[in-house]
Hints:
Layout: E1 5-11, H1 15-25, E2 38-43, H2 59-70, E3 76-81, H3 89-95, E4 108-111, E5 117-121, E6 130-134, H4 135-138, E7 142-146, E8 148-152, E9 156-158, H5 160-163, H6 170-177, H7 179-182, H8 189-200, E10 205-215, E11 227-237, H9 240-250, H10 259-266, E12 277-281, H11 284-287, E13 306-310, H12 316-326, H13 330-336, E14 339-343, E15 357-361, E16 373-375, H14 382-389
Parallel strand pairs: 1-12, 2-3, 2-7, 3-4, 7-10, 8-10, 13-14, 14-15, 15-16
Antiparallel strand pairs: 1-11, 5-6, 8-9, 10-11
Amino acid sequence: MNEKSIVSVVKGADVGSSVRKAVxxxxxxxxxxxxxQTVLIKPNFAVVAPPETGIVTDPAxxxxxxxxxxxxxxxxxxxxxxxxxxxxxxxxFRGLGLENRFERLGAELVNLDRDKAVKVDVPNxxxxxxxxxxxxxxxxxxxxxVPSMKTxxxxxxxxxxKNMKGTIPDSMKKRMHRIGAKRKVRDFELDHxxxxxNTVIPPTFTIIDGIIANEGYKPGTPGIGGTPVQFNxxxxxxxxxxxxxxxxxxxxxxxxxxxxxxxxxERGVGVCDLNRIDVRGEDLDRVRxxxxxxxxxGVVFDFKNISxxxxxxxxxxxxxxYIALSGMDESQLxxxxxxxxxVGTDVNLAGIDEDSRLFLVGNCTISNDVNGEHIEGCPPxxxxxxxxxxxxx
Length: 393
């Protein structure tokens, strides 16, 4: 019988003691780090947002992780991040007040966007056959993923596995979001790409910062965020899939419900079956809280000259369209002219003005027996949809 993956769950508002206890419950930091090794801590510092929003990892959590790591006598500790495409990582660091913060604890803050990238094969990749990874990350002996705990409008949750997207250059991030934009490989290609990436650069250790978590979706929030949740929870372990599976369960998602976690388990990165996980610390069902799912339900589309029609199908394409349209300024919306944006199948197109441009978004719109400008993907990412709507491809 295979040995179970160990995951710790700790409740408490004091982040320092909670991180320390979570690490102790899995066997201590020396189980993760050997003396003289180089440690890369990968937070979620992708956008500028106050820590109290739960959108980013609280820098205080990184402080606590550094202090625990120092007890293993590593040669070097690096806190490295590459922000979301379109964001200047240096400006994000300044906006979060990170300059010189970690140096006082003996760690170096590194803007990975200034790093070289290493191209590697993805032997078991489903949608990725090669990947570019920042050299600093690839050559580190230990990689610790420290994500914030939050839902995500495209991937249900963003925890330790998805947090590894910050270890790759922008060109690679765009590629992961556009796998299905021109040629359908698999449904939910982004989830497959996240799983593929973690087959070649899985975190050695994951510590989920759920002290202040985030749920749902509020248009206009940084990083496609939602509403903060005072959850006072830390989740930790060496199996990145098991840690994410436990984190997702605590957020109200059932085992296997989050696609990229299930795909990563299928690829052998770790286990997502809770029956095969040794949970230490808190009882999961006592801690569990059903987080508000990120959704466009109740969001009103009110764009001048632009109509939006949704038929049968998943919500991914609707969400991508809203993200695309809400990111446009008035001049860009005017540039689109009179347009109709369609997602899903079995859409009633009767009465559409013949002078309107017709955009069919998502692979399943192929079944609509109409002519229009097709934007492929399952779902296509919002940034790709926006560029197609604006004729930039």
